[in-house]
Write a structure and sequence with these properties.
Helix content: 25-40%
Radius of gyration: 19 Å
Number of helices: 12
InterPro entries: ADH-like_N, ER, GroES-like_sf, NAD(P)-bd_dom_sf, Quin_OxRdtase/zeta-crystal_CS, YIM1/Zinc_Alcohol_DH_Fams
CATH superfamily of the largest domain: Medium-chain alcohol dehydrogenases, catalytic domain
Pfam family, one: ADH_N
CATH architecture of the largest domain: Alpha-Beta Complex
Distance between the termini: 12 Å
Keywords: Oxidoreductase
Number of domains: 2
Domain Enoyl reductase (ER): 10-330
Protein name: Putative oxidoreductase
Shape: globular
Order of helices and strands: EEEHEEEEEHHEHEHEHEHEHHHEHEHE
Length: 333
């Protein structure tokens, strides 16, 4: 089958199009013919080798972290799906490979595709949808009437998280560039901070939750907008010990993660708030719940651009520019 393969860490020069064997089907697996896959900043970080300590992939590796397609075969112990089912998924981090014509995944990581979405729209959802769900619902336990700041509201995670937070009944503030202010307001943001003209930390106060997708100085300033007991949840900040334990990393790496996050955790404690790092996990169950919300009309995925499969490297380069509004998708079939 055709696939885009990472042969060496670095830039796009290490990625090639090639023929590889079809994936082997485990007893509890489904084999999915991929119709569309989305491109995420996570693919770039894996390509660059930045996640080797926590994701020690062997090369060559097929990139691609979420997809939509049709089940073509099921393993002998798989019960939830049958050939012909239209599905979407974020494969387990050890079994990525959506930039290909076929993928085998455990059925627990797969859900029936939202019926209202095209394959390209559905492929844009799993990674950002699960990130938003696990940040806002699992970690933050966001409640109606609470206030949440979501950074980079025009990005993949931001566009989805704004809509999910509004569905949950929260007041939503977001940061974005001048060109996207009105656009994120249409997504449902109540307060929009133009980061080119305004300092969000000087405007916002007494927030319950911050979802940080930027890290660095933005993360540190985010502590100041929280009320005592508030939570900042970051997908870009330093990993913490809790993440290392959940990921099953060894004792040494747990200590490394503890040291990496020490400074921001100490600052958070001083401000009487909490910091936690989120590395999104696969969950077919959560994708089923998201599909129900999407089919109700409460959330609409935002797709910036669709590239043909043979232009997957160009899609990676486009995402690397950091200008996409919403998600970038590769049409495989």
């Amino acid at each position: 089958m055709k696939a885009f393969v990472l042969d060496r860490y670095g830039n796009n020069d290490g990625v090639r199009s090639g023929e590889i064997p079809e994936p082997e089907l485990g007893s509890g697996d489904v084999l999915v013919q991929i119709h569309a896959a989305s491109v995420n900043p996570l693919d770039l970080r894996i390509r660059e080798g930045k996640l080797k300590p926590i994701l020690p992939y062997g090369l060559p590796l097929v990139l691609g972290n979420d997809l939509a397609g049709v089940v073509v075969k099921v393993g002998p112990d798989a019960r939830r799906f049958q050939p012909g089912d239209e599905v979407y998924a974020r494969p387990d981090q050890g079994r990525i490979g959506a930039f290909a014509q076929l993928i085998a995944m455990n059925e627990d990581d797969v859900a029936v595709k939202p019926r209202e979405l095209t394959m390209e729209e559905a492929a844009s959802v799993p990674l950002v949808g699960l990130t938003a769900w696990q940040a806002l619902i699992e970690k933050a336990n966001l409640q109606a009437g609470q206030k949440v700041l979501i950074h980079a509201g025009s990005g993949g995670v931001g566009t989805f998280a704004i809509q999910l937070a509004k569905h949950l009944g929260a007041t939503v503030a977001t940061t974005t560039s001048t060109a996207n202010v009105e656009w994120v307001q249409r997504l449902g943001a109540d307060i929009v901070i133009d980061y080119k003209k305004e300092d969000f930390a000087a405007i916002l106060q007494d927030y319950d939750v911050v979802v940080d997708t930027l890290g660095g100085e933005t993360l540190e300033k985010s502590l100041r907008v929280l009320k005592p007991g508030g939570k900042v949840i970051s997908v870009s900040g330093p990993p913490d010990r809790e993440f290392a334990k959940e990921a099953g990393l060894n004792w040494i790496l747990q200590q490394v993660m503890c040291l990496l996050s020490f400074r921001i955790r100490r600052k958070a404690k001083r401000d009487k708030v909490t910091y936690s790092f989120l590395f999104m996990k696969s969950s077919g169950d959560q994708l089923r719940k998201l599909a129900s919300i999407i089919d109700s009309g409460a959330i609409r995925p935002v797709v910036d651009q669709v590239f043909p499969f043979e232009s997957t490297k160009e899609a990676l380069a486009y995402v690397e520019q950091g200008r996409a509004k919403g998600k970038v998708v590769v049409k495989v079939r």
